[in-house]
Structure formats: C-alpha cells, structure tokens
Amino acid sequence: MLWATAGVATLGFLIALEIASRRYGLPGPITNQAREVIFPPKSGFLLYAGMALMMVVLTWRERFIAFGVAVGIDIAFVLTRWAADVKVTDGHPFGNGALWVLLGYAVIAVTRRTGRERALLLKGVGLALLLVAGRKTGDTWLLITSKTRPAVLDQYVATADHALGNPSWVVGRLVRATGPIGAHVLDYVYIQLAVAAVVVALYQLRNVAAERRFPAHHLVRTFLAIGLLGPAIYMIFPVVGPVFAYGADGGHWAVANVWPETAPALIAPHPMPFDQITPRNCMPSLHTAWATTIFLHSRRGPRILRFAGTFWLIATLGATLGFGYHYGVDLIAGVVFALTVEAALRSFAHGWDRAGIQLVAHGATVFAALLVAYRYLPREMATYPWLFGPLLLLAMASVIHGYVRTTRLWEPKAAPAPRPEPQPELV
Prior knowledge:
The protein is mainly alpha-helical. The chain is 69% helix and 1% strand. α11 crosses α15 (328-350) and α15 runs parallel beside α18. The longest helix has 34 residues, at 115-148.
C-alpha cells in the first residue's frame, strides 16, 4: 500500500508539473523523458546509472543480458543516426538503450511476474525511473522559479554572508588560480552527483537479489526526498547566486560585476528584479544536501567508498562556492536541511521514538531560524561577524551533533561474546 500510494502521488505530481510547464509554452518532465526513448538523452550516464540501480533485483545472468541489450540498442541508434547524418549537438549519443531496458522490465514485471517477484521488480524499475525523472522534475522546477519569482533576495544573502567572510569570493579566486584542470574536475563532480549517489546505493542494495527485499532505508530514498522538498524552499526564498547577481553572467541585471575579485559593499539590502531565465535555486544548496547524504551513507562502506564519499562532499562544496553558484550561508542551510530529511526518513524506518522526534524538530527549527535570520537580520549579521559567524557554525554543529548522537542510539548492539563455563577437572 505504501509503494502504491507513493506511486500515485508521484504520478500526480509529475502531471501537475507537466501542466504548469505547458502554461509557459515548454514541455514538462513527462514529455522530456518520453522524448529520450528516441532522441539523444540529456545524460546517458544517468540513464545507465538508473539501469544499474534497477539491476540490483536481477540475477547475474539477467544483469549481463540486460546490459548487453542496452549496449546493443545504443549501437543501433548510433549507426542509424550516422547513416541518416544526424548530428548530436545536445546531450549524449548513448543512453536510449538503458531507458528501453527499464521500460522493457516494467512490461516484464506486469506480464511475466506475479506476487512478491512482481512487486520486487516493479520496485527496482520504479526507483530507477524516479531517479531519472528526478532530473527532469528538477529542470521543470527551475523553470517555474524563474517564471514565477521575478524578484530575488541575493542582496540579503550576500549581506548575511559577510558573517562568514564571503567564502564564495575566496573560493572563487582559488578555483581560478588552479586553472582549467581544477575547474574541469570540480565541474565533473558537480554534474555527476547523481551517478555518485548510485554507486553508494549499489553497495547498500548489493544483497537485494539474494534476500529478495529492499532494506528499510537507503540513500535513494533520501536523495529523492531532498529533490522533492527542496524546490519548495526555492519558491519561498528565491536566490540566483553570486556569479549572476554580482558577476558577469548576470549581465545588466547584476548589481555589479565584482565576483570573485571584490566582496560586495555593505548596503541596505532589498529585493532586486532579475531575468526570467536564471533559476532561483540557491537557498538551500541542494547539491550540498545531496553530497552530505552521499557522505553519510558511505560511512558504512569499505575504505575506498568512504574516501570517495569524503572527496565528493569536499569537491561539491568547492564547486558550489568556487563557480559562484552559492553563498556560504546556502551551504550551511543545505547541511541542516539534509540532516533533517535524513533524520525523518531514518526515524520512519526505525520507528518514531522520542529521540527521533526531537532530532527532526530541532533540525526543522534551526533551518527555519536560518531562513528568518538571512531575511530579516542580514545587516546585523554583517555588522557583527564575530558574533553571528560562530553562531551560524554552532547552529549547524548542533544539528550534526544531534544526528550523530541519535543515530548511534539506533545502531544494533553487538551481543557480548559468551564466556566459557568452567569445566570440571579430573583429579
């Protein structure tokens, strides 16, 4: 019932976004995803990552067959486009085969499987398609924010960022100093965040085929929940980012072209109009939230996975600041947001108790307090950075400490090793 309810709610949400996109004369997430059955996909890597996620429910023989079929279909598409002299100018020339395999297994689940086997395969296909559709949904949300929020609050956030020492300006100069190599590495990390999440998820779901069930909680659940809830905050607190509001990318809409060379001057902040193209997707930083969840879920993996999770988190923070996509206060809000969502989902899987309720309430309260402070106390935060800077870090640290302390209580206790009983000796 839970999976059926979630499926119906997701379908209704996608239809609503499709209708909203059509009002602005653009295709929605369902249309964009359907196009990739034939046309070059926007991200072939994501489609293959989604197929890999679905294959956790298959046997090894079925996995090899599914992968071979996907590659064969992609080769056929490449040869057909080459024969028809069709140039792929946007997206990737591969990935259609992975989507065909996903859709094919959905048909197999309905027509050839029954009972628990059908439910298990549908769950695998559903998770994969949700991960893929999440990208399309995010693109539609970004379009809606740019069309419905003509004024942005960048001046408030940039002023509040003085309490942290304007980290976007500092890291922006560091990234430029590294040259094209550093920029390319950070850009790849930033773009392929969903693929990194699938790698961690595959480790968590490695036993699904043998146990014939999914674990109570895993990374994909949190990843999708963050992508669903985060854009709603975009609508409440629209921010475009320093590279647009204070950089050359903003054109004549920018306050000044000072990023990342010169920190913005302290002025009385006010809402500023901006174009209807740039997404208002800064508050909170969802890339930071997603990278935080990847870091959290990689902690139980082998050493190489833990190192990869740490690297992805650090590199994502460097990219979000160094490319001018986010302010420092966005990242603090993103960490608090991620831990709160993760705590809620873990509490649901574990069973709600007093500690879980207190943790979620604390995280939600801190997150709301951050947004209120950014909006109504930015001048005070910039005037007294020695006070508000540590307060921001302490607020984030309190949520981190609460999460670590509470989740440790939920860890299964190891049974003590039995002590051998004394044996009678022969005299």
